[in-house]
Design brief:
The protein is built from ten helices and five strands. The chain is mostly helical. The longest helix is centred in the last third of the chain and has 29 residues.
Length: 214
Amino acid sequence: MDDLAREAGITVRTVRFYRERGLLGPPRREGRIAWYDDRHLARLRTIAALLERGHTLNGIADLAATFEAAQAPDGFASALGLTEPPTEETPVRLSPEELADHFEGEVTPENLAAALDLGYLAVDGNDLVHISRRLLDASAALVREGVPLAAVLAAAAEVRAHATALADLFTTTLQTHTPHPDPTTLRPLAQSVVAAELSMALDRRLPPPPQPHD
């Protein structure tokens, strides 16, 4: 414990306090010797980083509980099926503190659980994996615009349902009228139609941009 505290730049008393609060897992014991490893050090550094970002110890404890539940064999991570990511999406590996940087003040246990349940996030060891760089960047941009992350995730669940219905529509249409549908043809055509229709729908809903004055 002395070595761990020194490496983490904190006191032994603080390490004991984190152990008592359930923020730090137990060491591996050999007789009367307690061995701490890199995972314990990573957890202490994550706690320090989250505290610097304004999270409370109670909030960090809740996040840790959600994170560890997702790591369980029957937790969220095993059900996400992210071993083969979508062909056009790039997964992003994030530490907990990097995720906090993307959504400062919005990474609550409820939002973390919702993102895991939705399939946006999966747990891989001590890291998180976001399923899509584009979705991560868009979600973070919406939060910066003032949209609460909880609202972004709720909207994402609705978008997922509509996107699935659109994919079903295009695949059914192609399979009905084409004996041997080519996925490489379907994907860009479907994306073009959806992008154009969404663009026109936004034109009908959003106010026009301000015109420059002479």
